[in-house]
Amino acid sequence: MVSIMRVIKANTKSGTPFQGAKGVWTIICLFCFPFFTNAQFEYIDSLLLKLDTTKSEEKRFDLIFEIFSPEFEAAPNEIIETGYKLLEQAQENNDLLSEACALSFLGQGYRLAGNSIKGLDYHLRAVQMAEKVSNESVMGLVKNQMANIYKDRQDNEKAIQLYKEANEHAKKGSHDRLKVWPLMNLGATFLNAGMPDSALMSLQRAYSESLILKYDKLLAYILTNLGGAQSKLGNNALAVTYYHMAIAEAIKNKSIRYQNIAYTGIAEYYCAAQISDSCTWYAKKAVGVVEGTIFSYMSIKPSWMMTMYYDQADQCDSTLKYARIHKSANDSLFTSKVDQQIQLMTFEEDLRQRELLIAEQKAAEQRRQNIQYALLGIAVISLVTLFLTLSHRFVTNTKYIHFFSIVAMLLVFEFLNLVLHPFLGKITHHTPSLMLLGLVCIAAILVPLHHRMEKWAIEKLTEKNKEVRLARAKMTIEKLEGGEEKK
After folding, report:
1. Which residues have a Cβ under 8 Å from the Cβ of 346 and sit 6 or more positions away?
2. Does some domain include residue 244?
3. Kind and range of the H or E element at 430?
4. For the domain that residue 128 is a member of, what is the CATH number?
5. How far is CA 293 from the centre of its chain?
6. How far apart are CA 387 and CA 352, in angstroms?
7. Which of 60, 158, 216, 465 is the most buried (most CB within 10 A)?
8. What is the pLDDT of residues 318-361, one digit of tens each?
9. Residue 338 lies in a domain
10. pLDDT tens, position by position, 181-204
């Protein structure tokens, strides 16, 4: 409340007091904003409380996903604060899923605040944590969020690669709304890369999915990029329609980020069409909507358009004003030091991913070999056991059957362990106690089966031994009787 009074006094002293309807609405917004903020925090705290008591993995992810919204993203500091709260809670509960999402929250918060290096650092940690979770939806979320860093920095190749990976994970996951994110971002990145046809395909799918799911939070961004794609393809009337729809959606959802993006998009369209009045009108709105906010770095494009316009009009003061805005916004996001750091972190992550892939391939190959060895062992032991059991030529000791049956059971257990280990690891998240429980269940099935098989083999062996002894006894008697007859 004190900060609000300071704003009012500052405006009054500067000779620009709040006047008329606009001034009244400004004062109302200033007074109401803390209450909206408190309401947002209370809602988030209630979700975190539910998350703390929810056992189902998918339901926990749904609760975390509910926190994401354009209104929430209007305040990166809130995202960061929420990320730290979620991270602390997740570590206390040993909840790897929530921990991966919390790290992604922090990465998104710092990214929106203009700190790409710290944002990427948290996103890389989120991906590494998500690899331990083995949940497709979580992996889709964290890779999509990390790709945003590269999209912002116009590294389209890396962004497209990550968005495609995120899209594949999201399609395999169970959360429907998440599937809209990589499609939407792929479309935007294809557009930035000068591929309007590919952009249009992805964006139309994202738009269709959003309407089916009644998920309107991202419509402003999707519509803006649809306008850009139609503009590139020469469908001007349709492009303008999409831009105005995007502006309306952004205002409805109270997202200053999406308002800036929509205003910038339509300003670029009018700039390309050489309609200077409309271009400057929307460029000014794009700069104004983020001016004095944490999103001021998003003024790069519109401030540059304004600089060029006033430079051509020989209005030095306005040219200098917007040139300064452009330089400030550009310096906050793009510097040689930041670029070098991002490139180094990207290289290290690519190297880690390659090493991880090689290790997985080696482990898979070793598992295949072990399975083959186990199968060979089972086959050999089974054949020997059957031979000893069913052979009618010589007497066999039951101790051999008992020994070979134990060896066979151990080989079967090891074979099932090798085959089922990836599946058990996925559903238990490699939790030692749950993995042990799974193996105990397998043993509980094998042991009775082993006893039955062993009992059957011993009974068969006993019958066979009796028959062999009886046959030998008959042969002996016949020989003796034959010898007596000769005498």
Report:
1. 120, 150, 158
2. no
3. none
4. 1.25.40.10
5. 29
6. 52
7. 60
8. 677 767 777 776 665 555 446 556 665 675 667 567 667 777 77
9. no
10. 999 999 999 999 999 999 999 999
Please name which of 194, 255, 198 lies closest in space to residue 221, comparing C-alpha atoms.
Answer: 255
- Domain that residue 450 falls in: 351-486
Q: Are 224 and 261 in contact (CB under 8 A)?
A: yes
CA distance 150 to 296: 19
Q: Does residue 104 contact residue 126 with C-beta atoms inside 8 Å?
A: yes
Distance of CA 42 to the CA centre of its chain: 26
This prediction has a pTM of: 0.62
Block residue for tokens 């892939």: 357
The residue behind tokens 């051509």 is 312
Please say whether the beta carbons of 302 and 291 come within 8 A. no
Q: How many domains does the chain have?
A: 2
Instruction: Show the CA angle centred on residue 468, arms to residues 466 and 469, nearest 5°.
Output: 65
% of the chain residues with pLDDT over 70: 64
**54 φ/ψ angles, rounded to the nearest 5 degrees:** -95, 125
Give domain status of residue 314, yes or no.
no
Helical packing angle, 136-152 and 57-67, nearest 10°: 30
Q: What angle do CA 306, 307, 311 make, to 5 degrees?
A: 115
Closest CA to 356 of 148, 123, 159, 127: 127
Nearest-CA neighbor of 451 among 383, 396, 417, 405? Answer: 405
Residue 190 structure tokens: 């294809």
